[in-house]
Amino acid sequence: MLLLPAGVYRQIVAACLDGYPLEACGLLIGEEGASGEAQVRASHPATNAAASARVYTVEPRDMLRADREAEEIGAVLLGVWHSHTHTDAFPSPTDVAQAPDPGWHYVIVSLRDSEPVLRSYRIRGGRSEEEAVVLQ
Amino acid sequence: MPVDVRLPTVLRPAAGGAAKVVAEGETVGEVFADVVRQHPGLRDQLLTPEGTLHRHLNVFLNDDDIRYLGRLDAKVSETDTLTLMPAVAGG
Predict the structure, then answer these.
(1) Global pTM?
(2) Which range marks the domain in which residue B68 is found?
């Protein structure tokens, strides 16, 4: 379960809309709870180094900055978010194949329809499983 | 000389859960060799079978990506910190 402050939700969706027609991406900062609930505290937007409407690559230097921001507030990198500009908010085969950390949360924002749709997934062992997102 | 090596969460299980390893070396490659000596399970996550930097790994020497500093040949000093991060990408 991903506990997502409404302000962070708005930041993520706004960054996805700003990035359109390219895919946008960024990191989630927060704490992982003992019961499997992850508390998001901040979003750190990143440059999509791939500059593509189909794929994304988090600019490595942005990831370093996000890691330092997390450390400064006593938090960790919880996961990554990115937009799907023309498809559902569901992990693509590329998302599943390249998921870097089985402990992370993978948030996808679909811009395919008139209203953005945000969903979150765990990706482990080549399989994705949707998790609940609770807006706070 | 000892250098701090910060590990991302995905690599910590192979280092006994440690978030940071202190390793010796004059270059990034030597530091990596000491990290692997301490935690052999990290070998294949840091380096290719040929001994080059794994392409799914980004390594920063303080604020700089080692790809622009000579990769594994980049020189390190005692006050340096190496930060390892997974490459993050998808579709």
Answers:
(1) 0.94
(2) 2-86
CB B85 within 8 A of CB B58: yes
Cross-chain Cβ contact A63/B9 below 8 Å: no
Report the CATH number that the domain containing residue B78 is assigned in CATH.
Answer: 3.10.20.30
Provide the ipTM: 0.91
Which B-chain residues 7-46 have CB contacts (< 8 A) with chain A? 8-10
Q: In 3D, which of B85, B81, B77, B84 has the Cα closest to residue B4?
A: B81
Q: What is the CA radius of gyration of chain A?
A: 14
The minimal CB distance from B90 to the residues A56, A61, A102 is found for A56
- Split into its structural domains, chain B has a count of 1
Q: Tens of pLDDT along chain A (136 residues)?
A: 999 999 999 999 999 999 999 999 999 999 998 887 999 999 999 999 999 999 999 999 999 999 999 999 999 999 999 999 999 999 999 999 999 999 999 999 999 999 999 999 999 999 999 999 999 9
Contact A56 B9 (CB under 8 A): no
* Structural domain includes residue B91: no
